[in-house]
Amino acid sequence: MDLELTADAADDLRDLHRALTGEAELRGRVRLRSRPPEPGALGPVVEAVEVALAPGGALTVVAGAVLVWLRHRRGTVKVKVTRGKSTVEVTAQRVRELDPAAVRDLTTEIVAALDGKRQLEGGDRPA
């Protein structure tokens, strides 16, 4: 596993999983990670979306897809993306009002932070 994406709600993770598997560059590389249910509960508990990265820009595809997905969420949806020791957290409120150029810039910042090339600063995007 190269990337781990987590959110507060299992339904958000399932929806994010659907969005990422719709990206041609990520087909066959995205899976849900779940654990067995607690005693008395039904069905497995979704914990994370995992993405196996391939050479050639897959990290950029993931970052861009996550931002597009977040732009269409209501409320306080938050996604944490972890790659090794690097973690970036982005909220729907942060990206909802961004114009396309700002989304591209934020995508570049996220990729750089997850590649370990740059420390993100400010707001809800701790490294």
Quickly count the helices: 4
Would you list the SSEs in sequence order as H and E? EHEEHEEHH
Proportion of residues in extended strands: 15-25%
Task: Report the uncertain regions.
Answer: 121-127
Q: Please state how the strands of the largest beta sheet are arranged side by side.
A: 2-3-1-4-5
Distance between the termini: 19 Å
Largest sheet: 5 strands, antiparallel
**Number of domains in the coordinates?**
1
Mean pLDDT over all positions: 86
Structural class: alpha+beta
Helix content: 25-40%
Shape: globular
Radius of gyration: 14 Å
**How many β-strands, per DSSP?**
5
Organism: Saccharothrix espanaensis (strain ATCC 51144 / DSM 44229 / JCM 9112 / NBRC 15066 / NRRL 15764)
Pfam families: EACC1
Keywords: Membrane, Transmembrane, Transmembrane helix
Protein name: Putative membrane protein
What does this structure look like?
This is Putative membrane protein. Keywords: Membrane, Transmembrane, Transmembrane helix. InterPro entries: EACC1. It comes from Saccharothrix espanaensis (strain ATCC 51144 / DSM 44229 / JCM 9112 / NBRC 15066 / NRRL 15764). Mean pLDDT is 86; it is low at 121-127. The protein has one domain. Helices cover 36% and strands 24% of the residues. Helix 2 (58-71) packs across helix 4. The protein has 127 residues and is α+β, with helices and mostly antiparallel strands. The chain has a 5-stranded antiparallel sheet. The chain is built from 4 helices and 5 strands, in the order E-H-E-E-H-E-E-H-H. Strand 4 and strand 5 form a beta hairpin.
